[in-house]
Amino acid sequence: MKTGVLVMAYGTPTAPDDVEAYYTRIRHGRAPTPELLSDLVRRYDAIGGTSPLARRTADQVRGIAAALEASSPGAFDVRFGSKYEPPMLEEAAASFRNDGFTKVIGLVLAPHSSSMSTAQYMSRAREALGEAVRFIEVGEWYEAPGFLELIASRVNEALAKVPSDRLSTTEVLFSAHSLPERILAAGDSYPDQLRESAAKAATAAGVAAWDIAWQSAGRTGDRWIGPDILQVLRDKRAGGVTDIVSCPIGFVADHLEVLFDIDIEAMGVANEIGLNLVRTRSLNDDPAFMVILGDVVRSAA
Prior knowledge:
There is one protein chain. The protein has two domains: 3-141 and 285-300, Rossmann fold (3-Layer(aba) Sandwich); 147-279, 3-Layer(aba) Sandwich (Rossmann fold), CATH 3.40.50. Helices cover 45% and strands 16% of the residues. The protein is built from twelve helices and eight strands. The radius of gyration is 20 Å and the shape is globular.
């Protein structure tokens, strides 16, 4: 019997007409106000109408399957489920149960874990699988062998685009998706994971000047973890920094939070304040990254 591998990700609308339904699912069945919907549509329009995340994620799932097949022929069956967009993760999980699998590994395409993000994926998948299936949850995997070294190589690649006479006033800014501050009261380690992964990636890249920031906070009444990347950019420029290498380490593929929040919104602020901003390339389905994730799955198995 093969071991099932349930790869999970956030999901994204695949066509402009799907945006409202997608937004409603994110809001747990509450339709967005016209203002909120218009703002999200505006952001998608700015990157071409829809996000490439669905395509990128499909490529990653195929890449993980190929890496596993190359290292362990016939041992794994890889399927994908999304948190907010079909195919839903419950359907993918149920397909393993219905096909008689007795062991399934859950992997979320996010290197850090949190009670309000990855833990929710796992809870939903576990319920859909039922008690007859042994469910092995992969938590944070940012320390997987090779991952931070791969991030470091992306950082050095971006640094090479900065004029050599300005490297002394250049900083690397690692970022991840913000979450509501209430997770801190429960002792959630998510912020610590970001800082630790950033520190280790910076060390691997040989970078002494670096910091962290948070991005993409939700449009809600909650207080979200900060400081926000847009404010950090302003503070860095005021402190004499001339160049920033933006490394959205919490994201593993091109999508709205990278293509709009960094490439358009953060870049706009940088241009406004006279700061040169260079972003690291997204990992997407880089073969080296696929091998790393395949090894994460095999270790869990």
